[in-house]
Amino acid sequence: MHRHRTSTIHASKKILADVRSEINVTPLVDVCLVLLIIFMVVTDKLMRGKEVPLPMTKYHKTINDTGEQLIVSVAKTGPKLQIWWDRDPLQDLEALKKKLDEEFHRKSSRPMFVKADADMTYGDVYPVLIAIHEAGAAGVQLGTQELKENK
User: Fold this and answer.
1) Taking Cα atoms as reference points, which of 102, 103, 101, 130 lies closest to residue 114?
2) I need a labelling partner for 43 at 20 to 30 A (CA). Which of 21, 34, 49, 61 fits?
């Protein structure tokens, strides 16, 4: 038993003039906008800690960010010390001590990373380091930026 393919036999042939060779850019624009939004959201999340200008050092050891480190950023404006827990501003040193106590009583000791403004002296950062030590941190890593030498 054979079926007749009348729909294919009697179908009108396409004329070349009906074929459009234009590119439909709407899907391309949609995809690009979605990727741009994803990039904008993810980029903000990639940076951990408050951005402060770090001291320059000749010998720089790169430390991989595992996401486990607790980041404390410190800057100084006039006589006032500004402290951030990751990206959240803290009122003062007492607020930092409270946050550290909460963190170290809740979990086992996690590595600490301190980012201090390059214009600050060690004496300015010292109270923050002592607060971290007294809270029970096993160690503290200080953030630096590599000094590029011209060859």
Assistant:
1) 130
2) 61
